[in-house]
Amino acid sequence: MTMKILSCLTVLLAAMPLAAQPTTLRQAAAPQGIPIGAAASADEYGPPDLLLNTSYANLLSSQYSMLEPGNAMKWDVTQPTQTTYNFGPGDELVAFAQANQMRVRGHNLCWYTQFPSWLQPYAETATPAQMATLLQNHITTEVTHFAGQVFAWDVVNEAFDDSSAAALRDSIWYNQPGIGQTGTGYIAQAFKWAHAADPSALLFYNDYNIEEPGPKFDAVLSMVQDFVNNGVPINGVGFEMHVLNAYYPSATQLAQNMQALAALGLQVHITEMDVRLPVDASGNASAADLQTQAQIYQTIMTVCLQQPNYTAFQVWGVSYNDSWIPSVFPGYGAALPFDFNYKPTPAFTALMTAMQTTTTPPSLKVSNVVNAASYQGGPVAPGEIVTVYNSTYGPATLVLGQPDATGKFPTNVGGVQVLFDGVPAPLLYASANSGVGAIVPFEVAGKQQTVVEYQYNPASGAAVSNTATLPVAAAAPAIFALNESGSGPGAILNLDYTVNSASNPVSAGGYIQVFGTGGGAIVGGATDGAPASGAANLATQPVTATIGGVAAKVVYAGTAPGLVNGAMQVDLQIPAGLTPGPQPVVITVGTAVSQSGITVAVQ
Ligand code: XIL
Description:
Layout: H1 2-15, H2 25-29, E1 36-40, H3 54-63, E2 66-69, H4 75-78, H5 88-99, E3 103-110, H6 119-125, H7 128-145, E4 150-157, H8 185-197, E5 202-207, H9 215-229, E6 236-239, E7 242-244, H10 251-262, E8 267-278, H11 287-305, E9 310-315, H12 325-328, E10 332-333, H13 346-357, E11 369-371, E12 385-388, E13 399-400, E14 416-420, E15 423-424, E16 427-431, E17 435-439, E18 449-456, E19 464-471, E20 478-479, E21 488-489, E22 492-494, E23 511-517, E24 543-547, E25 550-559, E26 567-573, E27 581-589, E28 592-593, E29 598-602
Parallel strand pairs: 1-2, 1-9, 2-3, 3-4, 4-5, 5-6, 6-8, 7-8, 8-9, 21-29
Antiparallel strand pairs: 8-10, 11-12, 12-17, 13-16, 14-15, 14-18, 16-17, 18-19, 20-23, 22-23, 23-26, 24-25, 24-27, 25-26, 27-28, 27-29
């Protein structure tokens, strides 16, 4: 009986389309691979706490897959006195986001305004060195506090003015008194501090009136070009997109600016979109204006979706009730896709239409799949442990794959599945931020290429799926680094099973076990996702190795007993005559060579 129900269910499920027609912004955005967000508030300036308003909270969580604190992560809230921090409202917003599978954008770490009352007077007598310490401590404390919770930060906000010279604005961080850096040096420094505090967060420069060509965009472009050239850790630029019916970028202008940033390898987030309209005494706009506004929302969303470096969209507020426009631009309002009654406006329909009708290139790219030990792309090998980055789909917080009673890893983790020619890969973990750890099924052996399909079917929202075709190789070896960075001291044990290190080196003639992945097929075969039950050799031969450039004797190359199939163990004997210290280890399987930069400590 049970069997019968089960098989009926299977047939039914197979016949069902992947997702029903989307009815919310977040459902429509999911297959496009972008988070869609809104600026949100808790009680950062006192009661009432907006998150306790169920109309507000329900709209936010049902329509949006991301939120950004409109104020709760700014200086005036987070550092009320020089020696105290207040992350309560930010934490509350983060908790709300996590409870609703939403991502969090952080805003902002360094701005010229919205300071706590003690800061401006302090700056008037402080030295640049004191200002540098202050800013460094603030950035480090805040980014560390939210590490792993905030996926992207607006590190520096609105640093350029609106003059035709697009000069750097006066600011306590720049010239009043500044942190002791010239030009955009203070901005670069802020990015470096933020990166040091959370290396996995995406870092953005955010500004307005840079959505179209002009002196301000030119100034930003030359700054970020300089940052990219000089290794300043920056991932993208935020276009605020506070526009009006009478003033907004054309499709061509917006595309041009996005492409100029794409050429530098930078992403673009639309961070604060609203389209303000003239309103009557009760805050309502004319029907005609609402139609024009809808068209602007639709155009902006469509243009963005066509640009591969467009990775997030956000509006500045949840509904007319909490929009900043009426208080800052008297006579204007009605700027968002939801009105005073939390009901959709024509702008909502326009955004839905744009997301449902714009076809975009598949968001899974060949370059999204890298070897988990080296982080290098290229062909995949049977059993290779890979990291699949598909940053916009996946659980907001990391979910670990739980092996079953036999030690076998699951193929669905947190709603994510990765298939190779339809065969589900065992998954070690899944996270939108850190990617997905997948083991290439051994079934790809002997093929020229494999179609990788990334599926995400979250508990809430629509399912998504996209594919990329990757070449297959017999082997694609790489060695794990001890600190998981892809280079430096390798994941290597000495003969007594202690970790090899500078203080625990190995002598000439001694033996080491080197751990990696990408060794390819196993003699006798191997079960996907199961632990290796014993030692079995790599099928692809020969296996050779060098240490310090000198050939090392390969004693064993194959499975790593006890570890999952796909992990590779290579036992080597240390050649004589090496200089004591870290020596590079390179393993070749067939014709494929492991990454450079992995070392073993030799004495
Ligand atoms: C605004 C908030 O929405 C207001 O509540 C606050 O009083 C002032 O700041 N550009 C930005 C945002 O980067 O931080 C601003 O937010 C709007 C303009």
